[in-house]
Amino acid sequence: MSAATVLTVLTTTDAEDKARDLAYGAIRAHLAACAQINGPVTSVYRWEGEIETAREWQVLLKTTAARYAALEAWLTEAHGYDTPEIIATPVVQGSAAYLEWVRRETAE
What we know:
The chain is an alpha+beta fold. Helices cover about 35% and strands about 40% of the residues. The chain has helices at about 15-30, 65-80, 95-105, and strands spanning about 5-15, 35-45, 50-65, 85-90.
């Protein structure tokens, strides 16, 4: 299996406890093998015609392409934002043992 079958998925939320809930929930459901929480970060964005600034926490989840749709659906449902940031990036290289671990942990 190629490394590209593994993805990192980024989302953000407005509170550390919400970030932890998203991370733990995705791991419990085997939708991600690992989640890292970073923050706070400052986000600057346009929303409904206005430039906004917000303090947010980033959650970086490791999953597989096969589990991405289920993870996205779960994040969309569990998230508190109207339009949550959910961005997936393929892993192009990585430790074979780590990538296999991600696949095992997210297997249905």
